[in-house]
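Reviewer 2 asked us to include a model.

Predict the structure of this chain.
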Amino acid sequence: MLAALGGSTDEPLAKGGIFVMALAGWAVSLCLHEFGHAVVAYRGGDTSVAMKGYLTLDIRRYTDVGYSFVLPLIILLIGGLPLPGGAVWINQWALRSRARRSAVSFAGPAANLVLGVVLTVLVGFVPMPDALVAGLSVLALLQVVAFVLNLLPVPGLDGWGVLEPYLPRSAQQLGARVRPWAPFALLAVLLFVPGASSAFFTVMLIVYSLIGGNPLDAANGYDALFFWQSL
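Predicted model (structure tokens):
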């Protein structure tokens, strides 16, 4: 695959390498996202996450591999939206405070942001072929998008989990009722409302540039990752 990433992004072999690397990297980032939730929960008082194997970074240990990995990959390929799925079951009653509960929810998206920054710095300071630059850049962009998307205050997303411990009981109950379908409603808006997706990604490219990323490199990688859209 590294040989495939050594050429121009316009070469079919390079596009295939970018596609494989980006998907594999996204799968790894999903694992890091869930690990982020688990390690903060463990430090916050929920020692059950260790017994469940969530601290091993082993994909097989997560509660629902389909919901946490397969579904997010399908959503990514169909709509281009990097939305991690929940798989780590946290014992909220074991957490010591509302701040700990909030921190557990924030930790998953934070892992995506840290990975995105690390990849952006790597691309910026390490000389590498154009195709590898494009592949790592689009992977970094996906991390930034995942960070922002997950922190939206929508029930079922981590952003809601950050706020929920501080909300009144009535708001928590409403959130619990709409939690199963609210994220899919958000996806429907971004995918099917004309202009919503393009506007969202335009903003994300601006955010990506603010952390030092090159939007053009990320766009080249995005085109290679979703090569069928230009067929």
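The chain has one domain: 4-230. The first helix runs from residue 12 to 44. We have added this to the supplementary material.
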